[in-house]
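dumping this here before i forget
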Amino acid sequence: MRKSSVITVLIIATGFSFSQNTSGKRIEKVKVSGTVQITGTYCGGAYPGEQAIQEMKRPKPLPSKKLYLKAGRKNDFSKAVILAFISDSVGRFSISLAPGDYCIVDEVKKNKSNYDSILKKCAKGSSENSSVDKKCLLTWFLTPDAVFTVGKEDLSNVGVMFYDKCSWEKVPCINYTGPLPP
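structure:
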């Protein structure tokens, strides 16, 4: 009885967790943690000065960002989301995963329906936008926001970076041809 108590304490103390795969074998999981950040850009209007522009470009924590995890190193539409998680108030996250390759995507890239929606809405273009570049859009969707490999030890430096684009650049793979702000 005492040996099993010691083993239980060791498992808890090391931060490992276990789950069972379909064959009934236990899979060791490890802690994966990281940060979610965002940078901005100058989008026109009165020139704020070089210091303000540099501050916009500086990465800042992105709190309460919902992210989706998929197996593999590519955002494959045929693969289901295996985990959804949200960054905390300072942009950090911590999850437990079995060894393997993983990718993180945001809400827009999580499934094919958003891809299809953009293709449909932006197929013809408008007076202010070109039509969507289908090859570019597919590449953008298939490219995850972060990729990492989990081994046998905790992983603590996973970084996810987002770029806050100007309003006319929000839809990827479209060229804006309309008027810019003064």
